């Protein structure tokens, strides 16, 4: 395998976001994630400047790369034209491709987001769809959510929404040919391969953790990664 720094250089987001860093810390000063998490874009850029596999693997296995909220405030201020938010995107992609994401709690959650929001996109044509917001997984929706899901068609009719039917409007049914086109876009842009990588490495991790893993959502591994929280992420803890 090529040196990891070279693999990062093959990602256009890395090329766009990473130039020389003079370690000034302006990005960290403006970064909202740095206020709450043990996260520091200045340190991260500095670590990357070592260009060694060892320091990059440390990042790929870390919680750190999952703390960035992708607000891109850093892009607006860096005197060297860096965008740590783009660098993070490239690191996350590499972490998923090589399977290092399963070594961190936040990284393992990529499986949960793939099985929910990710699969919703290809199944419904929406990131979030009432049928994809299972009441058992979303207690934050409140006690009436199960009733809303069970009676969605009648409720939407009364609200005048075109729910799950052809035609116009929010939550209309997305035509199969459009879903097929979405799938084709995922296929040619690497999205499908990324989903497969998340599934395959998560299956291996589930084996190591002695947890059941299958195509159903939720399953035992899903429940663990969806709910585990070490409470070690907030730097004020
Ligand atoms: S603002 Fe730019 S130059 Fe300064 S530490 Fe951040 S990335 Fe490096
Ligand atoms: S994009 Fe990420 S690194 Fe940049 S300011 Fe926002 S949270 Fe911080």
Mean pLDDT equals: 95
* Low-pLDDT residue intervals, each spanning 5 or more residues: none
Main β sheet profile: none
Report the bound ligands by name, code or SMILES.
iron/sulfur cluster
Q: Which structural class do you get from the secondary structure elements?
A: mainly alpha
Give me a quick take on this structure.
This protein is an all-alpha fold.
Describe this protein's structure.
With 237 residues, the chain is mainly alpha-helical. The protein has 2 domains: 4-98, Alpha-helical ferredoxin (Fumarate Reductase Iron-sulfur Protein, Chain B, domain 2), CATH 1.10.1060; 103-227, no CATH class. The protein is 56% helix and 0% strand. The chain has helices at 4-9, 12-17, 26-30, 32-36, 41-48, 53-60, 73-77, 84-98, 105-124, 145-150, 152-159, 176-189, 191-208, 220-227. The protein is globular. The two termini are 39 Å apart. 26% of the residues are buried. The model has no long low-confidence stretch (mean pLDDT 95).
Keywords:
mainly alpha; binds iron/sulfur cluster; 237 residues; Fumarate Reductase Iron-sulfur Protein, Chain B, domain 2
């Amino acid at each position: 395998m090529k040196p990891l720094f070279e693999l990062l250089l093959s990602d256009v987001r890395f090329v766009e976001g990473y130039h020389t860093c003079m370690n000034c810390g302006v990005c960290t000063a403006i970064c909202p994630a740095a206020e709450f998490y043990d996260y520091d874009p200045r340190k991260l850029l500095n670590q990357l400047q070592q260009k060694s596999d060892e320091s990059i693997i440390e990042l790929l296995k870390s919680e750190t790369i999952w703390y960035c909220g992708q607000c891109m405030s850093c892009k607006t201020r860096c005197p060297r034209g860096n965008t740590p938010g783009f660098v993070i995107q490239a690191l996350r992609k590499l972490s998923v491709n090589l399977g290092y994401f399963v070594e961190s709690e936040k990284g393992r959650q990529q499986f949960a987001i793939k099985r929910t929001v990710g699969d919703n996109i290809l199944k419904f044509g929406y990131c979030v769809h009432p049928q994809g917001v299972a009441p058992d997984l979303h207690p934050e929706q409140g006690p009436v959510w199960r009733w809303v899901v069970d009676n969605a068609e009648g409720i939407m009719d009364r609200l005048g929404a075109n729910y799950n039917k052809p035609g116009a409007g929010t939550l209309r049914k997305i035509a199969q040919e459009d879903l097929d086109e979405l799938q084709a876009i995922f296929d040619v842009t690497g999205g499908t391969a990324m989903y497969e990588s998340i599934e395959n490495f998560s299956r291996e991790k589930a084996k190591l953790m002695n947890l059941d893993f299958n195509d159903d959502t939720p399953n035992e591994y899903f429940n663990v990664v969806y709910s585990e929280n070490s409470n070690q992420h907030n730097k004020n803890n």
